[in-house]
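Reproducibility note. Readers wishing to regenerate the assembly model reported in the main text can use the exact inputs given here. Chain order matters: entities are listed in the order in which they were concatenated for prediction.
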Amino acid sequence: MSEEDYGFDTRAIHAGAQPDPATGARATPIYQTTSFVFDDTQHAADLFALRSFGNIYTRIMNPTQAVLESKVASLEGGTAAVACASGHAAQFLVFHLLMQPGDEFVAASQLYGGSINQFNHSFKSFNWKVVWANADKPRSFEKAITKKTKAIFIESIANPGGKVTDLAAIAEIARENKIPLIVDNTLATPYLCRPFEHGADIVVHSLTKFMGGHGNSMGGVIVDGGTFNWSEQAGKYPLLSEPNASYNGMVLSETFGNIAFAIGARVLGLRDFGPAISPTNAFNILTGMETLSLRMQRHCDSTLKVAKWLNKNDAVSWVSYAGLKKDPYHKLQKRYAPKGAGAVFTFGLNGGYDMGVKVVSNVELFSHLANVGDTRSLIIHPASTTHSQLSAAQLLKAGAGPEVVRLSIGLEDPADLIADLDQAIKA
Ligand SMILES: *Cc1c(COP(=O)(O)O)cnc(C)c1O
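Running the prediction on these inputs yields the following structure tokens for the assembly.
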């Protein structure tokens, strides 16, 4: 049986990995080395000219990273993947390949706060312009597209509210306009949602979150769907479809076909900007990924229990979790993430800002910190922390009003989590 024929759980453990050819080690070794010895001068020349694939230097490629990349590509159903230092590094490498100075992209305004910052502020230095659209209104993406638009960027399940995006509707708009759809699949993971099956062209992840799953290692990944034709529109994506001066005039899309995007992210992006993942972090994330299905299902089941309990609590004014039957995103969840709605959601407390601060201060089992996707349950009050610099109007737009608390439910006993929230609310 070939690797692609195995089921998801089997691939989470075995895809990309085999006993170490040098030692027979069964687990993937941490190849903690910066560089690799060439067979001879011809081998070295071939590697540098991309005439053959192989390890040169860990900034560009490393055997531990390679197993991680093959595993993620297999689970997402992409043609190839490139691992890097963080989720934000992955986003940067993606846009570097697509954008020239003066170009635009359209992004959903329902995004992880860090992505909003990256797009609004730091991308300005490259003269890359973000135009915001509303993930709840696919047509708003179409209206935002101009001749300079090079891509659309959305999240499958959106941070922080756990809202589910209509992937197929937005993919259709991307296809009609001949631009790639990039989906950040961090909160869903490929266990819950596989964006390529709904028309995405590129998937990115923060591996820091549920993929690694243990809150101990930073990582990111870019997955190439192999679906987009980079050379169809002459001059539109020059790094992918024009001769590259740093590789003797090689055209990536001609030489590498349906893995050209992944190759570009590696041999241009990682080579020149350098955000490589460390072999040790790649190993930690690989270990986490072996139990992805078990963990994600438990995360979802426990989250539904906590969300239902909060929904019945008199101190709580609303709960935003797509797994709840009456939630406005429940239909989309059934379509795009039928096994569960993930583990990150928000709720509102009667009593506003002071009550939000009080609950966060009084929890004992939940950790008060700015992360999601850990085995441990996490809590944050955005208005007094991550979003405290925003005006009242901006807070509301960001879904971070004064009464909003965000949870990321871990793998503890749900009864203990509920008891902790109960005592924190009553205290
Ligand atoms: C955390 C996160 C990122 C950024 O990833 P880092 O690994 O922290 O750089 C991007 N998107 C989403 C949805 C995230 O949760």
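We highlight two features of this model. Residues 86-88, 112, 114-115, 155, 159, 184, 186-187, 206, 208-209, 218, 220, 372 surround pyridoxal-5'-phosphate (CB under 6 Å). The radius of gyration is 22 Å.
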